[in-house]
């Protein structure tokens, strides 16, 4: 048992911050230029730095991943049905509806936790306008199979890459896949700008379409050809991003060490399943999910309660399924019989705390609880 009196609670994540001194020079530039937002110099600098870091050519900064997903869908004129994963944060399906389209939920692959291409195939109709998969916890989707379906149908493949910052598959950034990808820089992510995100497209025209949509639909002062939203990143957020970026590789390495320790100590535990890594992938270790089966002595919720009693707060991402939420359960694809794997995963998953400064004594205690849980 840890000494609770002398310890702050342990949450599933704790945002990384740069040294405050790293941010101050950027703040001084903002204060002297009085350019606070609307694609100012720091946002432009961060755009170039991120394009370079991610190895992508066309990146547009946005206020958050959700506004980026809406702009991506709207920019591609997606109207009709969008096949997506029910095993996600609600923002994925929300953005589809807010963009004026309809989510259609297809089941996931229980190993990768991502949309199963065979299930996508089953849900194609004449109304299918796009596919919107999620790289769950930064675990790459079966891109080849999804791309084949999208190309065959002539529809866009829009990745919700909220979790995928810095992940590479066969040397290529996941954010470079698909018709476009949208990444999150939220406080809880591996790279954060407090709130923020980016849309990665593949040509200047698509980038311009996204940037017009996140600037109220304004083309120039007297031309506003469409309805847009305000999804711009401010200079303050860009300043944080510029100060954070030099630390991101170190952050990913520290996360890797924590993930490796969990894997080494927990693999082979009766009733506990880990997401198996692929050797072709450079992960970002955004989350450390474990799945419990019925041979584990406690239910998933009992395990969470045991940890919570000691001030440790793992999270049941993603429970409940998006398809079970009141706003989505009326869709015919939300029918439980359509989504057995997603349901099983959502009912058995728990994400253990992982962040660079997770004290090793706390991680040891988490491992101890998982290894020898008591009711
Ligand atoms: N698509 C997917 C697949 C996503 O997972 C997300 C977001 C999105 C799209 C949308 O991206 P954004 O539009 O947000 O850029 C959190 C995040 O708010 C959300 O961004 C993230 N996914 C989701 C998986 O996790 P909550 O409601 O669980 O957050 P919250 O406030 O409970 O935070 C989790 C823990 O993190 C807290 O227990 C404590 C810690 N924390 C959190 C914040 C915000 C801190 O220590 N400091 C903080 O500032 O959604």
Q: Specify the helix fraction band.
A: 25-40%
Distance between the termini: 14 Å
The ligands found in this model are: ligand T4K
Strand order of the largest sheet: 2-10-9-6
Number of domains: 2
> What Rg, in angstroms, do the CA atoms define?
21 Å
The structural class is alpha/beta
Which topology of the largest domain does CATH recognise? Aspartate Aminotransferase, domain 2
Helical region count? 12
The first-level CATH class name of the largest domain: Alpha Beta
CATH superfamily of the largest domain: Type I PLP-dependent aspartate aminotransferase-like (Major domain)
Oligomer: single chain
- Following the backbone from N to C, one meets helices and strands in this order, namely EHHEHEHEHEHEEEEEHHHEEEHEHEH
Shape: globular
Q: Strand count, sense and closure of the main sheet?
A: 4 strands, mixed
Describe the structure.
By secondary structure, the chain is α/β, with parallel strands linked by helices. It folds into 2 domains: 20-247, Type I PLP-dependent aspartate aminotransferase-like (Major domain) (Aspartate Aminotransferase, domain 2), CATH 3.40.640; 248-371, Aspartate Aminotransferase, domain 1 (Alpha-Beta Complex). Helix content is 35%, strand content 14%. The protein contains 12 helices and 15 strands. It has helices at residues 20-33, 41-54, 65-75, 91-98, 117-122, 143-153, 204-213, 235-244, 248-266, 300-308, 340-348, 360-371; strands spanning 10-11, 58-62, 81-84, 102-105, 128-132, 158-160, 168-169, 172-173, 180-184, 197-201, 272-274, 281-282, 288-292, 312-313, 349-352. The strands form 5 sheets. The protein has a 4-stranded mixed β-sheet, sandwiched between helices. α3 (65-75) packs parallel to α4 (91-98). It is globular and about 65 Å long. The structure holds ligand T4K. Ligand T4K binds next to α3 and α4.
